Amino acid sequence: LIGNRTAGEQQRILGGVVLAGVLGLVVMTVVAMNGASRSSAQVAASGQALMQSQRLAKSVSQALVGNPKAFPEVRESSEILTRAVNGLRTGDAEVAAAPAPVQEALEPMLPLVERAGKNAGIVLAQQKTLTDVGQALRALNRQSSDLLEAAEAVATLKLQQDSSAAEISASAQLVMLTQRIGKSANEFLSSEGVTAEAVFLLGKDLNTFREIGRGLAEGSSELRLPAPRDAATRERVGALMKQYEETRRAAGVILSNLPGLVAARDAQASIVTDS
Known about the structure:
By secondary structure, this protein is an all-alpha fold. It has helices spanning about 5-65, 70-90, 100-105, 110-125, 125-160, 165-190, 195-220, 230-255, 260-275.
């Protein structure tokens, strides 16, 4: 095409072609690198979303039983999950919006991510309640063995004294109640145990224990229990009721925070289901 031109013209034309080729190569390299970087960022964002969705479910279950270290993880996982998915949806400073075929897969995720963020906020808002209740439950769990030992001592003494059937039955019922209170405490330490029904049962058992314990300590015509006549019985029943008061104070923290516990439990269940 340029053979009939002068040597100088041929050199200028060939030089221009080479320059254009170099510029084209540079442009193609930049475009390819940008595309690879964008694709890499999108893959990283999807990986973060996947990991944080599972981490959120794990940390929120730990937060529900009052683990202080779990709350920062709940906040961090929720924020990263929301940021990663929204970045893939609309793009941001760190990641470009995903291509059209991926957008179709993102659509059903959006309400799940939004709900997870909202539920994580509910759990975080109950941090003090959940932490206090977790400490109270652990204290209640520790005290239940002492309460059981004191109740068994009273029941043994009643049997040795050849007491009435009502007294023996009442002391045996106290032993049963201490075991049930301890079982309730253990159930509360798992995320499945934080339910309104479990809280109601714990409160009922504590009230029944107080009524029977006072009957053994002071006498009760309604329960057909006479007041103790000997010092040994008064001493052991008194020790039992003193231990009960410690247990009742720990349980009071749980019972007074029922609305917050139920709200956090519902939020945690939703996050785990959606995860």
